[in-house]
Request: fold
Amino acid sequence: MEKRIAILPGDGVGKEVSKGAVTILQAVAELFGHKFHCVYGEIGGAAIDEYGTPLPEHTLELCKTSDAVLLGAVGGPKWDRMPGHIRPEKGLLKIRKELGLYANVRPVQYYSSISDVSPLRKEVVEGADMVVVRELTGGLYFGKPSERTFQKGEASVVDTLFYQKKEIERVIRYAFELATTRKGKVTSVDKANVLESSRMWRETAEEIAREYPDVRLEHMLVDNAAMQLIKNPRQFDVIVTENMFGDILSDEASVLTGSLGMLPSASVSTKGPSLYEPIHGSAPDIAGTNAANPIAMILSAAMMLRMSFGLLEEAEAVENAVKQVLESGSRTRDIALLGNFPVTTEQMADEIKAALLDNEAIFNIMGAYA
Ligand code: IPM
Ligand code: MG
Reply:
């Protein structure tokens, strides 16, 4: 198989973890006889510095002409004082909108080998396995007006939560489809006791549910969901929710695994290529120190192999290699225990690569005897 992958490292640790993911992708290509052509583009602060805009036209073009996009992270204190429309985050929002990335899929998987870093008790998190499906191109992040105004002599401000019904439908349908391949339960999270947009969201979920008699639909208010996530995370299978609720709840859910550095995501498009990115940010405090955890990024690459290219065996091989390295006790700083010596970003990626190559070598020998 031959594929073209747009790599947008972005800012801060995005650059370091992207390198790790490319290392793994090239190893996969070698092992399984594929060709991955990685083409690089700027986004976020890196693009502002070079081109004066967080998403240059040529970066967008690069993505549109690729089979999938792998993105690191954007943002940093250097650009925090920029006016709203040229902040690094605007580049991320724009690429989501331009590529039509309506559903952001964030699997939250618990790894027993690092259960000791979760602030939650083992008996609470053990076995938790859920996916947060976050609406990504509408809601509070995109509604207009979004501006400061002056009304009745007072400084005022407005953000808008706007959805077309069809935007709600497609993301909820995505969640139901996903649930049919999992435990068959969808939790639709809203604030229907207060927001009109949530009441329409809830109605729409009910309508879609009729198309999926084998999937159980449950509604949950977002404040309760925030509590239930850490009180009884095993109850969840697929969670589907509005853009900003999903942003907040998915960070919270990462606590189950113990670190934001463990969570990958896929953003699925209505049309062109999908985009894969870790859910963590650019972590300016540790950027450039080779300390970031590349696992979220590497697992995002694995999601790409599975979802965009249909390379199931390859994706599994990467995920198994990650599991194995964690079981061997190697940990980056974010998941290291007090007194343990953490490995660097590069070392972690290299160890995952070594495990990948080892496993396949053993597999091939066994195959030869079978
Ligand atoms: C995320 C991030 C982004 C978001 C930021 C960087 C704009 O927090 O992907 O979750 O809020 O969507
Ligand atoms: Mg976020």
